[in-house]
Specification:
11 helices, 5 strands
Amino acid sequence: MGAFEREARANGYAVIAGADEAGRGSLFGPVYAAAVILPPERSVIGLRDSKLLTAAGRERLAAEIRRFALAWAVASVDAFVIDRINIYRASCVALERAIEQLDPPPDYLLLDAIKLESTLPQLPLVHGDARCRSIAAASILAKVARDECMRLWDEVYPQYGLERHKGYTTAEHLLALARFGPTPQHRFTFEPVVNSCPRALRREAANFPWQAAYESGAREAWREASHGSPAQPAAKVAWA
């Protein structure tokens, strides 16, 4: 790892950020994103795709990344906004918000197979979290932050097993949805969630005017809910 950062510096860029998201395929809760600027002269030993690490390994590396990075930031977009603008656009918003928080600001972006509407030069890399150390670092921070969010929501909804499966489509999660139905934090534009609703509500979920609801006041309600303390399960919302 490090070849893409070296190439960018050889081309005249000085402040290179890697960014990645976590939770895009989950049925529950926010999508998270992180952005990281690593120092060129120092390596964080063991960086790799966050999915290949144990939870303990991710926590250890996350602490190292936060300690040695020139800058890092994490942002999230909640389930209601995901349903309003779709998961791809919500992932882009989360990435953009994380990047905007970096100080110093980057002059070049390395991204994991996604293209942002940004004026900054950027390089989307397929399997970037396995090929690029800056993206790998961002993937670890995003994953650790989202896992902690799921742990907190598990305390609110223990019957769903969120701490174990993190909201993804597992047999345990689908069984809980079939038994208890979805929570307000589930993503109602995702088919397994819609299918877990009573038949009469499926049409309402499928045809719900997310944009109108958002503009008529839900935005403020969700903004207020997002302003809890870090110990609360309400995650910081990055509004489009």
